Amino acid sequence: MINRAIRTCSVPLIAATLFLGQPVPVMDKGPAGLFNTAHAEEDDNVRRTPAMRQSTHKRFSRIRDLVDNDKLDKAFEVWEQMDPSGLNSYERAMRWKLAAFLYHQKGDNAAIANAYRKLLEESDIPLSLEQDTWYSLARVEMVRGSYEAAKKALDEWFALQDEPGGGAYALKAQIHYRQENWEQSLQAINQAIQARRDSDEAVSENWYLLKRGVLYQQEDYQGLANVLEILVREFPKKSYLMQLSSVYGELDRPADQLAVREAAYEKGYLEEESELVGLAQLMASQDSPYKAAQVLRDGIDNGHIEASRKNLERMGDNFLMAKEYEEAINAFRQAASKVEDGELHLRMSQIAADLGNWEQAEQYAATAVERGDFDRLGRAHVVRGLALYHLERFSQSLQALKQARQFEETRKMASQWHDYVEREQKRRQQLEASAESGNGQDESAAQVL
User: Fold this and answer.
1) 329 in Cβ contact with 349 (< 8 Å)
2) Could you give the CA distance from residue 150 to residue 193 in angstroms, rounded to a whole number?
């Protein structure tokens, strides 16, 4: 059973801080390589394709110049004036690739996708052009939210590849993620990461974020810990440290949870009250109450934690657990200044009584009684009665205990102490009387002598 007291900021924090949005897209934007193929390859995996004629290339160049000069409407005009029937298959394909570029300037993804599909209907096009187009189509369909169409286009691209790169597997993982195919998405992103590692290239941070998202959906917290450890090591950020700490809480690894949270604290990442209070709670749960109290005190001193009764009382509780009694009393005294009731003065009186500081205990208990307005008022009378007894102020002690008997919670205890103090008072009176009598006899004997 996971210790819920230790799992500070657990699943809710993970959901809130890790995975509110979708994974970061892994594709880049827009169609690539629009004007970098002036002529078809003569030997493109044994495909025989016609060449682009010079006149066609000039018209393409003119359209490009118009776009460069912010004359997009005129560029579309020139494009539409090109008669497809007068072009060979390769030129028609490149005309549609040019159309995709023009529609990209307008941000019309549906038209871009349509242009790519028209291109792919042409026969006798270079293999490299077909490959590029399937990949570009997959990306634009992904952006459009047409995930099944994107997957089919990417599958066509994979079918034409001998050694797909990591980027393609990352795109595949992203598509599967959008379709909530978690296992397929995880398999693809692992292939993407491995491909980069095999080529000694750096793995994109976004790829790890995508993997993190999949693992969260699968509720695989050990896997989450593994990927977050990589993110913390290679891309150190506050968010990753906090997420890793929360995941360690889910895995019931409180020592690791605290170590990571302390690392974030030492780096100065923790400034929010909830973060600092959460750290203090973790420290206290791992038998470090003094450090917890220090975190709270420092946070209050620098203004990151509100000096409220609740927070000051927390600080006092931790000092008390650390057996720093004077520090605890000081914290409770500050907390008591924030409220009208006497509850905290009762606590201070109890600490002073435990330390044998009966004068302080009586004063704090008297203030608690004077303020009142809290549930344990009877106990304040009891503590005051005991303090007065130890100060040998028996009559006042009996009066305080008599008041304590009026409360059901403390009636039995107060009665027992009242009887005891009463007997002790009588015993002391008898001893004093006996002593006085003895002194009188001594004086008579002296006179006789």
Assistant:
1) no
2) 21
